[in-house]
Specification:
Helices cover 35% and strands 17% of the residues. The protein has eleven helices and ten strands. The strands form two sheets. Strands 5, 6, 7, 8, 9 and 10 form a six-stranded antiparallel sheet that branches. It has a four-stranded antiparallel sheet with strand order 1-4-2-3. The longest helix has 18 residues. The protein starts with 7 loop residues before the first helix and ends with a helix. The mean pLDDT is 91.
Length: 314
């Protein structure tokens, strides 16, 4: 837990929750901290002497982008969650959205802007945005999670500050059409076996502190109202679950994932992003959806651990 990402503190909360949930009757648990500088408490190769498997409780870059997964594969120790390639793909919002769109899922109109592009020709970028989009627009880091650095820009006057904030987090920034509708999210679990994926009940999110589900809405008490199952018709819930399972398969996720979406008043479902290691804190969405689906937190964590061992056979 921990790691060199803006989500270091959230990761610590996830790690503590997971460690507490793994019952001492079944498991011997050791917690290993990776510092904000990327320093391990013990060398990765020494983990084989300490553990049969590693539960990755790190979010964002390094923990969720395939880096730590690649390190663990190099020392041949089982770990929870998605592998290096799928993790890297999901972390790159622009590439994963292209994959979803090619598979028939709806995604917001998007423009990828690099730091060099914005530095060398900002007026050209502003011109392209002006011609391709109508305000409001969404500006977000292309490689980050927990809505860190995300802004809803209402007019051109707010664009520069939003781009600056996003580039502070990532070298690439995504500019997207703002999709009006209900924010929903849906978790998916699997047993580590092919075709074993199943969706949890979808959750409807009503932000209280902002007009979208930003970092404060996610982690501040009372920041958002979260309703599981979402207040939707049965066919809409199935539509969301089907899209979440498809996204899970397309990325090649293992163990668990959570896909964030928008359902418009015209019943159009847009995929915003997929999280390969969604938060497992007291405030997090996946554990709440699991409970609503009949899976308490210790059972949820145990299912994720079991999937790490089962997938080694395939």
């Amino acid at each position: 837990m921990g790691g060199p990402s803006p989500e270091h503190e959230v990761s610590l909360k996830t790690g503590e929750m997971v460690a507490d949930a793994l019952t001492r009757e079944k498991y011997e648990v050791e917690k290993f901290l990776i510092s904000k500088d990327g320093e391990w408490e013990i060398p990765p190769q020494a983990l084989k002497n300490h553990a049969d498997a590693v539960f990755i409780a790190m979010h964002g870059t390094y923990g969720e982008d395939g880096t730590v997964q690649d390190i663990l594969e190099s020392v041949k120790i089982p770990y929870t969650g998605t592998g290096p390639l799928g993790s890297a793909l999901a972390m790159n919002k622009f590439l994963s959205l292209r994959l979803f769109r090619d598979a028939g899922l709806k995604t917001p109109q998007s423009l990828l802007v690099t730091g060099n592009n914005w530095k060398d020709m900002p007026h050209s970028i502003v011109y392209r945005i002006r011609n391709y989009f109508e305000y409001p627009i969404v500006v977000k880091p292309n490689n980050s999670g927990s809505s860190v650095g995300v802004s809803v820009v209402k007019n051109e006057g707010g664009l520069d500050a939003a781009m600056h904030e996003a580039f502070h987090i990532s070298r690439e920034v995504l500019v997207q059409k703002f999709i009006e509708g209900k924010e929903v999210t849906c978790g998916v679990l699997d047993q580590g076996l092919p075709q074993s994926e199943f969706a949890l009940l979808p959750t409807e999110i009503i932000p209280k502190r902002n007009n979208f589900f930003d970092y404060k809405s996610k982690y501040d008490p009372g920041g958002a109202e979260e309703i599981t199952p979402a207040r939707l018709h049965g066919y809409q819930l199935k539509q969301i679950q089907k899209a979440a399972v498809l996204a899970h398969r397309l990325i090649g996720c293992k163990g668990f994932s959570r896909t964030d979406m928008i359902l418009t008043p015209k019943n159009e479902l847009y995929i915003l992003e997929l999280n390969t290691i969604p938060g497992l804190t007291r405030e997090s969405l996946l554990p709440k959806a699991a409970v609503a689906s009949g899976i308490n937190f210790p059972n949820l964590v145990e299912k994720i651990v079991h999937s790490a061992f089962f997938r080694l056979r395939y």
